[in-house]
Specification:
alpha/beta, 5-stranded antiparallel sheet, 31% strand, 7 helices, OB fold (Dihydrolipoamide Acetyltransferase, E2P), 29% helix
């Protein structure tokens, strides 16, 4: 991904080990670029005056000035993911329109979930860092990153056929590959566009435009029959019938 297209990140945390963990996590995601780290809010104010930042990873419990109070001092703050060891700050964090709230110690999987929320917000917003190139006229497609086989894998929504839940893991199936990664199906469902994907079973989400045929009991995608759960039948039939009629 070109440097100009990356999400520029600033880490603000008074604890060196916490800054190093976030530095490592950011380095593991192609879409992110670490542009600086600060150990306190005062230094961060100076940094923001001279540098463009798209995303803050901001600790809340810091000396002199809480992260939540620091955000209130900014006229046009970047997107924020709060990081803290204290759950009690969660409500206040979300009231400040935080993208996510990460509880320390921060695992890479939980970090990645927050980053994917930022990616989706950028696609839906008016300022899209992944917008089409003026030189090539290509349309940027929404995507998510997943950790699989010790590397980060970008998956375009348009490539997904269906997703299967496997307890604490999911299997994302495209026409060319299947990716197994640690993720909850319900969590991923919240991140997918509702007009493109539908959950048809407690263990399956399918891409609506990839369905080749369907009846009351199953849908067929790429010659695979996927069951429709009993509690999902009315909703699924309504959505698919409407899609077929349009």
């Amino acid at each position: 991904m070109p440097e100009s297209k990356k999400i520029k990140c600033l880490v603000i945390d008074d604890e060196l080990p916490a800054r190093e963990i976030l530095r490592k996590h950011i380095a593991g995601v192609e879409a992110l670029e670490l542009c600086g780290t600060c150990s306190n809010a005062v230094d961060a104010i100076s940094f923001l005056k001279d540098n463009r930042v798209d995303l803050l990873f901001l600790d809340i419990q810091m000396p002199h000035l809480l992260g939540t109070n620091f955000i209130r001092t900014l006229k046009n703050p970047p997107k924020v993911i709060f990081t803290t060891a204290y759950r009690k700050y969660a409500v206040e964090g979300f009231e400040l329109d935080a993208v996510d709230f990460l509880l320390k110690p921060i695992s890479f999987e939980r970090f990645l979930k927050g980053v994917n929320k930022v990616l989706q917000a950028n696609f839906q917003g008016s300022h899209d860092i992944n917008s089409p190139s003026e030189n090539h006229g290509e349309t940027a497609l929404p995507f998510l990153y997943f950790r699989a086989d010790r590397k980060m894998v970008k998956v375009l929504f348009n490539d997904i056929l269906y997703i299967e839940g496997l307890n604490d893991y999911i299997k994302i199936v495209t026409a060319s590959k299947a990716i197994v990664t640690k993720h909850l199906l319900a969590s991923l469902e919240e991140m997918l566009p509702a007009n493109e994907f539908v959950r048809i079973h407690k263990s399956f989400i399918v891409a609506i435009n990839k369905i080749e045929s369907f009846n009351a009991d199953c849908v067929e995608i790429a010659k695979k029959e996927i069951p429709v759960g009993r509690s999902y039948k009315i909703t699924v039939n309504k959505i698919l019938s409407s899609s077929a009629a349009s």
